[in-house]
């Protein structure tokens, strides 16, 4: 690691500790040339895939967009922010572990709907109505009928 003060190429680690959140390592380093100390943080580089939009554009995976969409769907529902964060963590981890460099946006949308379906059916219907862009009330009713059949209430 290069010294930030004198730019000497080789520094040594004096102390290492797990970071506060447990997701990084805090290292105290010392430069043998200028003898100054500094702190570095080491963390795993998260490689998230690019998202292929419907129109063919590609953009980086954006966790905030998923959280925002789920928050809107879960508004005034008994779903906590912690639950939403946990769902998004699970989705993000899934897409990270799948190893694909690019994924279609439709795959993300379907995964979000599946997660909401398991969590809160009203939030699921809200998200699905926006995501699937129902053309008329009949498409919406078909989705609701399927939901009722699958949940054993219909």
From TrEMBL:
Keyword vocabulary terms for this entry: ATP-binding, DNA-binding, Metal-binding, Nucleotide-binding, Repressor, Transcription, Transcription regulation, Zinc, Zinc-finger
Superkingdom classification of source: Bacteria
Molecular function GO labels: ATP binding; DNA binding; zinc ion binding
InterPro entries from the UniProt entry: ATP-cone_dom (IPR005144), NrdR-like_N (IPR055173), RNR_NrdR-like (IPR003796)
Residue ranges occupied by any ATP-cone domain in the UniProt entry: 49-139
Transmembrane segments annotated in the record for this chain: none
Keyword Transcription regulation attributed: yes
GO BP of this protein: negative regulation of DNA-templated transcription
Cofactor note: Binds 1 zinc ion.
Cofactor(s) demanded: Zn(2+)
Described function: Negatively regulates transcription of bacterial ribonucleotide reductase nrd genes and operons by binding to NrdR-boxes.
Record-stated family: Belongs to the NrdR family.
Protein name (database record): Transcriptional repressor NrdR
Organism: Pelovirga terrestris
Gene: nrdR
